[in-house]
């Protein structure tokens, strides 16, 4: 008799535990977490100017205190971090390198999961993109030619560059 009561009690406890775990009330809300909606330069961009300011735009307003040099990182292909400052305005975070980027170099931009929106929702995964800088400007021709002799003192000296230059 005691065995029957013990088995009945055990069966009731098992049923109660199983039925209590059978339903999941969690409702996922899409669009709550922030995402990077665009970058400058674009992912895979080639010929990026050496003085490029790098930026990432989010789909919503972010908490500016979470966007800094620890959460917005730019590195060379070999992993060397680029020195620079990070600012935030509107929905855009901007990384301004301390010096010009190196020519013909692939860089990686990374926005880390430590960035959060104003409601405290974090980026779900690091956002990573790459871009490659342009070649360094080079002079293709000069007038007068290099090491020219007998050049008039009032001669206008010119240089032609391989790429367009900022006047």
Structure explained in plain terms:
- The protein is mostly beta strands and 167 residues long.
- Helix content is 12%, strand content 32%.
- It has one helix spanning 2-21, and strands at 36-40, 45-48, 54-58, 72-76, 84-89, 92-97, 106-111, 127-133, 139-143, 158-161.
- The strands form three sheets. A four-stranded antiparallel beta sheet has the order 1-3-6-5, with no helix packed on it. Strands 2-8-7-4 form a four-stranded mixed beta sheet, with no helix packed on it.
- A hairpin with a 2-residue loop joins strand 5 (84-89) and strand 6 (92-97).
- The longest helix has 20 residues, at 2-21.
- The chain starts with a helix and ends in a 6-residue tail after the last strand.
- The mean pLDDT is 87.
